[in-house]
Amino acid sequence: MTHQQPILNTSPKVSDEIRQTTCYMCACRCGINVHMKDGKVAYIEGNRDHPVNKGVLCAKGSAGIMQVNAPSRLKAPMIRTGPRGSGQYKEISWDEALAIAVGWLEPVRHEAPEQLAFFTGRDQSQSFTSFWAQSFGTPNYAAHGGFCSVNMATAGIYTMGGAFWEFGQPDWDHTKLFMLFGVAEDHDSNPIKMGLGKIKKRGARVIGVNPIRSGYNAIADEWVGITPGTDGLFILSMIHVLMKAGKIDLDYLSRYTNAPVLVNASEGPDKGLFLRDDDGKMLVIDRTTGKLTPFDQPGVRPDLSAVYEKDGITHRPVFHQMAERYLADEYAPEAIADKCGIPAKRIRAIAGELARVAFDEAFELDVEWTDFRGEKHTKMTGRPVSMHSMRGVSAHANGFQTCRALHVLQILLGTVEVPGGFRFKPPYPKPVEAHPTPHCKATPDTPLDGPHLGFVRGPEHLALKEDGSPARIDKAFTWENPMSAHGLMHMVISNAHAGDPYKIDTLFMYMANMSWNSSMNTKGVMEMLTDKDENGDYKIPHIIYSDAYSSEMVSFADLILPDTTYLERHDCISLLDRPICEADAAADAIRWPVIEPDRDVRGFQTVLVQLANRMKLPGFTNEDRTAKWKDYADYIVNHERKPGIGPLSGFRGTDGSKTGRGEVNPEQLNQYIENGGFHVAHIPEEAGYYKPWNTAYQDWAVDMGIYDSPQPYLFQLYVEPMRKFQLAAEGHGDRQPPDHLRQRVKDVMDPLPIWYETDQQGNEGFTVNALTQRPMAMYHSWGTQNAWLRQLHGRNPLYVPTKLMRENSLQDGDWAKVTSPHGSITVPVMEMAALNDNTVWTWNAIGKRKGAWALEEDAPEATKGFLLNHLIHELLPPKGDGMRWANSDPITGQAAWFDLKVKIEKAAAPADLQESQPAFPAQESPVGTGPKELKWKVGK
Length: 940
Prior knowledge:
The chain is α/β, with parallel strands linked by helices. α4 runs parallel beside α16, α5 packs across α13 and α7 packs parallel to α13. It is globular and about 80 Å long.
């Protein structure tokens, strides 16, 4: 009998149907094809037509199938039956749950709406949740940005009208030198990986600045293992070298920045403020005429060097002050090398490489464009240097000024919004004046007087009561952190517990794991959530919490409102919020229920609509007292933020033919679904670069509804609002800082980027830097209960550099005691050579508390996994004045996670099961424990 090859089906049927939607496994929001069999999810792949990922999908995205089958999913609304933290609950109906919530919320709204603190975690519908809170009337709303990367976003807005990631991206097609600062591999994961592949294929160089060489830094052509917290000093030193060598783009600075704007240099209440005309426009000296003129006058050629004097008052251009500051010897590489851990010769070499590529490899695109002064240009000049940065430089108490310095470095090289450089994504760029200022007036039975969050222009915009006390529970927009544009979520629980600045009645949170990995001082926060007053009542009377999974925080709630998973609900990735745009196009997207829940759960946004309808909140209620919307999908389609502008920009108008502006389209969601779950509106070629100054872009943005009128502006190398705060601290103006903060405001609120030491008070003897990063396969805490992703990161060692391993006689697998001024942990260690030699680090959010996430009590995440959070406190050690200041950036209030200092010593393995310490008693799981093997069959 002759041999026969076996007959194999090499193309088995994968699915009956493909449903296209948007991934939720991180904040990239890639497009996905969800393959269905018999109405269930069989397989998830990338959508090749999607503007974000173009078909690329990472481990997280593929593992989404495990999220919708996770044993830790909450199953029904629950009311607490045991003590807080015990995990003891009983299931109730939605009618009962909503009635209980309204029973707690309505009295607050009628009597003192500020006693509701409503804060959301890694949510992607913040324009909606803020709208709900504003309608309720509480000033106490914010999302997770205050403990994530507000320094980066806020510094970018004040300096150049946008920042990295969701605000912009490198010009991957033209860049020749790409420099990353403090970027862990979870940030902008798929787009960055795709971009790196594209530029490395072309032979472009990549420089990674990070104390830790992992992820993107591991494939960089050059790795700079900087000392944590010194990035700003390193950047300012490169600025020193570039300015001293004359390697800056003077033409760009004079045309597009406030470098030539005149500043009052004479003593008095206006010192440091811009010279303006009667219309409030900044004034410059025209190089051609030598006359004073508004910056945007047609034909003006602003002079970077001219000085203007009148009536004994001298005005000098911003550029003069920059030269005086940054040419000073204190910024020379030799002066700062030891502090940064980078040899002076190397600092000069990197600065030289930036200059060489920016200027010697400059190129031109044959694209005509017209600037805001009416000048026509026949070319677009490219400077092929681009940069990207995130939390690594942001999460320090000097992070705001460091981020500002990085933006100024890009601007000095002329690499922002030019071919080959950094490019904004719509709806950015936006000048700070296009953003709201914060509002905080709480009035019973009345909506808040305006948006909660925004960008202050001076002390007059601080969120203070008439007596000068903070109006918000998190003390955002106060003299403690004046420019806290994203709030201070990490301070909410501790302030509420202390009744400082006042007590609250209800803490309402969504997807914010504040009792575990999202809080500094984890043990202390758990105690605050369970602490009682002298009457035996909880100090925070009511806690309402919504999540899709049985996280650590669930056990501390009094009422649980279970969310769906991301494939079971509607979501809106909106231009009003955190869009998915690319530099060449405006884009937004939706999620929709590709599967129906098999549990009694509801999407949180729909629950908010239902709560609003029961309470008749003004923004959600028609004049005849009927509800405007029945659920979140109804809101997405029919809500208009202003006439013709809604949550989604695509398929507007009654027939879906309009983009950006247009009437409500009842079929809008269906048309998004038919189009793959997204919509794209491409920017015309002549509008693709120079967006802040390009009339073609400005006109396109108006047509799209991004602006109501063109908003050209100058990049702000010198941020005048910061000078206004300094003037107040110097005694000028009606609104004055408290005396104990006066000197700090003078020191840190410098309108030009500076660098200062982070607060070392109480750190004597603690000299080792300690950091966390998220791995590429995880995102916040919810990834480590995922059956596939757990196999990649089921435990986390403390990575220790070779030098410290030798000094402490440590070997891989040994245990070490790590101590900070706040506490100690005992954890397993592993040697890592590619690491700053005075820094230890670990993966974030791998460690779990026993009983959470439906994991078994002996799961590696609950035994070998650990958090550095136990070593960190939301307050700094007591100062000489006896006060404990927030462990935050003094400008924005960003949580200073990465200022942690520790000491490390070899320790015996913990007794019993050799579990990482501290170990906490198990919580009772409200959803039980998952099976040892998670398996199911879809289809035949």
